[in-house]
Design goal:
The structure is a single chain. The protein is mainly α. The protein folds into 5 domains: 31 residues; 87 residues, no CATH class; 84 residues; 115 residues, Endonuclease III, domain 1, CATH 1.10.340; 71 residues. Helix content is 54%, strand content 6%. The chain has a 4-stranded mixed sheet with strand order 1-2-3-4. A hairpin with a 5-residue loop joins strand 1 and strand 2. It starts with 16 loop residues before the first helix and ends in a 10-residue tail after the last helix.
């Protein structure tokens, strides 16, 4: 039965279902992928565009969390430029949107600057004023609070800024400060590098230029290394010269010695002395000046720190008349605030009077004059109108007014001059020169005065008139009216010996 063919049933020719489904999926997959990609792109465009350019919304709370500074309009051009730099840093850190920059920044404007901004809003309108860009606001602030003369002073200081001795750190710090205040002078980067190299010391300027640095950081690091090398070379040169000097002093003298040769000086010794003198760029200050500064700083250090802290309180700061200079103070590791490497002496606690008293009446000073006292103190201390305060203090010193000797010759008794018997008998004369030239060419005045009546004549002349011309003028204007003076020969003597341009000589 099983081996017989089934002729009554038809053969099963239906295809496999799994194969059909697989084939349809292979045909549909490309369309599905295309649709999915199109849907993702549509969702991305509706949710904010480019992911890379999507800015995070910045609210006022996150802006104020960065602790921005206020601007009052009293800080001057330097204070305004520093405020703009700090505000740009805050705007960048807080990721503030462009439409909110002006609104957030103007909230920090106070006092005098706030009055200026309110006037601008009233003039332009509220909407137009707050639609300004940050760059437009910066230009308006600079035009209002940065006069051209102050900017020119900063530009002049930056152009003349150069390295003094081996003080590379001080030069670099001040260079970066001025570069921030006048950025147009250091843009682009190549201009900044060239200006930095130009102000370096001549010993290292050529080597830095030949290295051709591409960034300001590489130029600064190279200048620091070369300066340190120069300092070490000078130290080694001084040490070697001091070693060579001892045998020269002991072995040979100018008029004989162990060598027995007269009028001979060691060439090596003289060469070392000259090299040492040339390498010593700064004069060594006298020992009493050094001792004065050391004693004052040691005895008043704790009082200075305490007074500086009190002076910076809001209620005491206006009395110091710093006018914004407190921002340039530098606090060193010893806790003292310095202004340009000089200790700032505040007004509180009568600290200035203590410094003046110790520097004027101590053992190391012995009542110096105002100029000498100011020259000694300015090396260590600073405060506003310091020279004026020193002059007033020295002027009130009773010891100085009593002990100081008078260096003028005694005047003696008064002598009564001889009284003339008749008018225009004796005269005096003088010349007023270097005056603006008149239409007739006169640039001097000849003043002739009668000693008895004090009547005078003012004769217009020229500075290049000869003696003959002056004599004719005298005859026409004086002799014709008053006659010849009793001592007429005095005229020639006075005129010849008077310093009248050096053009008159006895013929």
């Amino acid at each position: 039965m099983s081996g017989r063919p089934n002729r009554g049933r038809p053969q099963n020719k239906t295809p496999d279902v799994a194969q059909v489904v697989a084939q349809q999926l292979l045909e549909a997959i490309p369309n599905i992928v295309t649709q999915v990609i199109a849907g993702l792109n549509a969702n991305q465009g509706s949710s904010g565009g480019n992911w890379g350019n999507n800015e995070r919304e910045c609210n006022y709370k996150s802006f104020m969390a960065c602790k921005p500074k206020e601007f009052h309009g009293k800080e001057g051009s330097v204070g305004l430029l520093k405020w703009i730099d700090s505000m740009e840093s805050v705007l960048h850190i807080s990721k503030c949107l462009e439409r909110n920059k002006v609104e957030y920044a103007t909230y920090l404007i106070q006092d005098r600057a706030l009055t200026w901004w309110n006037t601008l809003v009233q003039t332009r309108g509220y909407t137009a004023a707050y639609q300004l860009t940050w760059e437009d606001l910066k230009k308006l602030l600079i035009e209002e609070y940065c006069p051209k003369d102050e900017l020119q002073k900063l530009e002049s200081e930056f152009w003349n800024h150069s390295m003094v001795g081996t003080q590379i750190e001080k030069y670099t710090v001040r260079f970066h400060e001025l570069a921030q205040l006048v950025p147009h002078m250091v843009t682009p980067e190549e201009k900044r590098i060239d200006r930095y190299i130009w102000g370096l010391a001549p010993e290292i300027r050529g080597m830095v230029t030949s290295a051709n640095p591409t960034t300001i950081q590489s130029a600064v690091s190279l200048a620091n290394r070369l300066t340190n090398d120069v300092i070490r070379m000078r130290a080694s040169t001084k040490e070697s010269s001091s070693r060579k000097r001892k045998p020269a002093d002991q072995g040979e003298t100018k008029y004989g010695g162990k060598s027995g040769r007269k009028q001979k000086v060691s060439r090596n010794f003289m060469a070392n002395v000259i090299a040492d003198a040339l390498s010593r760029k700064e004069r060594v200050k006298p020992s009493h000046v050094r001792a004065l500064g050391m004693v004052i700083q040691t005895s008043l250090k704790s009082q200075i720190i305490d007074a500086q802290e009190k002076a910076l309180f809001k209620e005491n700061l206006p009395g110091e008349t710093l006018h914004g200079l407190e921002e340039r103070f530098e606090t060193k590791p010893d806790g003292v605030r310095y202004f340009k490497d000089m200790v700032w002496i505040p007004r509180v606690n009568n600290l200035r009077d203590m410094v003046l008293e110790e520097s004027h009446r101590s053992k190391y000073s012995i009542h110096p004059g105002a100029d000498k006292m100011y020259k000694d103190l300015k090396e260590y201390y600073w405060w506003p109108v310091m020279k004026k305060d020193i002059a007033l203090y020295v002027g009130k010193c009773l010891t100085c007014s009593i002990v100081k000797a008078e260096h003028q010759k005694p005047s003696g008794l008064l002598q009564q001059p001889e009284i003339p018997q008749w008018k225009w008998e004796q005269i005096s004369m003088d010349f007023v020169t270097k005056l603006p030239r008149t239409a007739k060419g006169h640039d001097s005045i000849w003043v002739i005065v009668d000693r008895l009546t004090k009547s005078s004549h003012f004769l217009p002349i020229r500075e290049d008139f000869k003696m003959e011309k002056l004599a004719l003028i005298y005859i026409d204007k004086i002799v014709s009216l008053h006659g010849v003076p009793y001592l007429s020969f005095l005229i020639e003597i006075v005129v010849l010996h008077h310093d009248f341009g050096g053009c008159y000589r006895r013929h």
